[in-house]
Amino acid sequence: MEHPSSPDSNKVSPLVSLLPHAIPLQGLAGHEEDSGPTVTEGKGKVKITVAPNLPDLEPPHRDTALDPGGPYLEICTLPPDRLECSGLRTPVVVLRSWEGVALQGRNGVLFDLTLPLGPETLVYPGDSPPVIARVSDLRVGDPLTTSYMALGCHVGTHVDAPAHFLTGGATIGELPLEAFYGPARVCSLLGRKEIGAPDVNALDLPEGRHILLRTDNAALLHQPSWNGEYTTLSREAALYLASRNPRSVGFDYYSLDPDGSGDFPAHRILARWNIPVYVCLDLWRVPPGDYLFHGFPLRFEGVEASPVRALLFADPASPKCA
């Protein structure tokens, strides 16, 4: 696949990777039957057009020519037959890096909030990084490829059930499915060392939604080592959030409470209200607003947490996001 900025190519894969500038998304559904996805550059910005009649998606591609360790953008749409079977109202665009994104038009946008799992994944102090080992490999003559994985329940993007902080609290398997899915509000609370009750009170939060808090912690998630100077949530702010009867509370680092806190007051308050807490959500530059949230855990029995694949779906045509 040619690089999107190549002067010799205007057509690119349905999966567009590594656009180096801020990316305003405009006109995501093309209108020419065979136009295919295109990338055009002008005045320092990139415009992306994705035709609705694409073939099945190609494997993801990551171009590291400009920034070997940097984030990337992945765009795809489903062909019409798969779109209809999915039950979605509009084509879906998947964004894994969304700096400067403007949600325009009437196209569904799927934000991936999940950290990649691997040996380099940032972990909470005292936890072990994931172990992923190849057991058999087609490339060395084995009849099939298989892998082994070992990781703690609290590594990477995951959800904590009340049992994590409350004796007798609900485990992952005891929480209702609606605790992991439904309408969500993303709230931007940048520039704060601690989020207090006045901060969350000013948000005018509706009841019964997933409340996802975007803070300055987003930059820390991608650092190679633990940083104890992260933004936290005060006890009073946790009490206010609990009073809104949320389906869950989501945060963009490993803990709501200060580093070294032995009693975890914010976590314990939410646990007492039977509210699951998502941590390590990669909310970097996600526009604040209303979405549909998906963060289903594995169907573990008797455990207090689980890794999740956390997604936000913005569908301007859906009243559920209004």
How are the SSEs placed, and which strands pair?
Layout lengths: L37 E5 L2 E5 L30 H7 L5 E4 L12 E5 L18 E6 L9 E5 L7 E3 L20 E8 L5 E2 L1 H5 L8 E5 L3 H4 L10 E2 L1 H9 L4 E3 L14 H8 L4 E3 L9 E6 L10 E3 L3 E4 L8
Parallel strand pairs: 3-4, 8-10, 9-11, 10-12, 12-13
Antiparallel strand pairs: 1-2, 4-16, 5-6, 7-13, 7-15, 8-14, 14-16
Report on the architecture of this protein.
With 322 residues, the chain is α/β, with parallel strands linked by helices. The chain has 2 domains: 1-77 and 91-112, no CATH class; 158-321, Putative cyclase (Glucose Oxidase, domain 1, 3-Layer(bba) Sandwich), CATH 3.50.30. It has 5 helices and 16 strands. A 10-stranded mixed sheet has the order 3-4-16-14-8-10-12-13-7-15, with helices on one face. A two-stranded antiparallel sheet has the order 1-2.
Based on the model shown, name its key terms:
322 residues; alpha/beta; Glucose Oxidase, domain 1; two-stranded antiparallel sheet; 5 helices; globular
Number of helices: 5
| Uncertain regions spanning at least 5 consecutive residues | 1-79, 83-91, 96-106
Rounded to the nearest angstrom, the radius of gyration is 21 Å
**Form type:** globular
- The CATH topology of the largest domain, please? Glucose Oxidase, domain 1
Helix content: 10-25%
Strand content: 15-25%
Please give the largest β-sheet.
Answer: 10 strands, mixed
CATH C-level label of the largest domain: Alpha Beta
In short:
By secondary structure, this protein is α/β, with parallel strands linked by helices. The protein has 2 domains: 99 residues, no CATH class; 164 residues, Glucose Oxidase, domain 1 (3-Layer(bba) Sandwich). The protein is 10% helix and 21% strand.
